Amino acid sequence: MLKSAHVQITPYYQALLDSLGPDHPLRRTVVPSGDCVPAPGELADPLGEEAHCPVPGLVHTYPDKVLLFATLRCAVYCRYCTRGRLVGSSDRKPSADVFRYLEMHSEIRDVLISGGDPFMLSDTDLSELFSSVRKIRHIRTVRLGSKVPAVLPSRVTPELAAILSKYRIWLQLHFIHPAELTGETTRACGTLADAGVPMVSQTVLLKGINDDAETLAELFYGLLERRVKPYYLFQCDPVFGSSGFRTPVEKGLQILRELQGRVSGLALPHYCIDAPGGGGKITLLPDSPLCRDGDEIVLKNYEGREYRYPDPEKGGPAVLESITY
Ligand SMILES: *Cc1c(COP(=O)(O)O)cnc(C)c1O
Question: Alpha-carbon distance 187 to 157, whole Å?
Fold first, then answer.
């Protein structure tokens, strides 16, 4: 089963892929290929988001922050998408129930607007959304996650940057490869940074695409040069058909070991696994001892609860062994 039946590539990103040649690994991240066979441990909703939806369009996993789906559309559909089960399906705007929930829950201080890609909305719709969220006094931080600067940089206009600046929005951008840092993307980041919009980036560690220290160091330095701070490096979530994209966790740790101390500390993101089953993000450090049970890595989240990530390549006997690297 495929994670997402939806295929869409912007003319801009298609031209980039064409200029990189037919064998460039970025192509595989957006063009379906035959390697999407289901593997053990894969799920339609690996982060257990459905179980943490108090109202449709809102995910409340952590005590003081929420994820708000502004749209289910994207400019480009990634083959490794965590939300392949949802994206591209019929669109829905955040309902009045979403804002009522935010108002009623004064413990929520941080709203992450995501989807889908919120930059698929018009400037007018975005302004309205930001204005509604900003009216809620206990909300301190508003962030927006987008891959648009990488796949549709012409969407980033001075008008859009002014709206983000007016509502004091933090941006969390999605970049996976230094080849994405084109002249047009550089211009888009410049427009945003010059308007005073703070930016961080999130990268998914992808097998054969960016799973080596040299490629990632180039990406992270390139982002810093464009005033984007690398924030998270994610272990790929075990969505259906993702096995061709997933690297062993040990490989991620090895890359971190290679980068730590050798690159600017500002260039180093947190390496993290979003715990299957809804445990939230769990950060691993280069010297984290990995606890393995057969084909699974056993993790503890911020509450001390146990979660398991399928990691078959280092599979062994089904006994709990603690490996310290
Ligand atoms: C990632 C995520 C957040 C934000 O987490 P940070 O670690 O603060 O960036 C909030 N809610 C959900 C459900 C998330 O998946």
Answer: 10
- The CATH-assigned architecture of domain 2-287 is Alpha-Beta Barrel (3.20)
User: How many whole angstroms separate alpha carbon 239 and alpha carbon 29?
Assistant: 14
> Among 73, 179, 157, 160, which Cα is nearest to 117's?
73
For residue 49, the ligand 1 atom closest to its alpha carbon is: 13
CA 272 to the chain's CA centroid: 11
Tell me the pLDDT of the chain averaged across its residues: 92
With CA atoms as reference, report the closest residue to 267 among 212, 215, 219: 219
Nearest residue to 106 (alpha-carbon basis) of 64, 62, 57: 64
Contact residues of ligand 1, CB 6 A cut-off: 59, 61-62, 65, 67, 112, 281
- The reported pLDDT for the residue numbered 89 is 80
Condensed to tens digits (0 to 9), the pLDDT of residues 208-247 reads 999 999 999 999 999 999 999 999 999 999 998 899 999 9
Of the candidates 30, 120, 110, 112, the one whose C-alpha atom is nearest the C-alpha of residue 71 is 120
60 CA distance to ligand 1 middle (Å): 9
- Residue 66's pLDDT is 98
Query: Do the Cβ atoms of 239 and 82 come closer than 8 Å?
Result: yes
Question: Minimum mean pLDDT among 167-171, 184-188, 194-198, 279-283: which range?
Answer: 279-283
Torsion, CA 182, CA 267, CA 309, CA 79, rounded to 10? 0
Alpha helices in the chain (DSSP H): 11-20, 96-104, 123-134, 148-151, 158-166, 183-194, 213-225, 249-259
* Domain edges within the chain: 2-287
pLDDT tier at 261 (50, 70, 90 boundaries)?
confident
Q: Which atom of ligand 1 approaches the CA of 232 most closely?
A: 9
Q: Is 160 helix (H, G, I), strand (E, B) or coil?
A: helix
Q: What pTM was estimated for this model as a whole?
A: 0.93
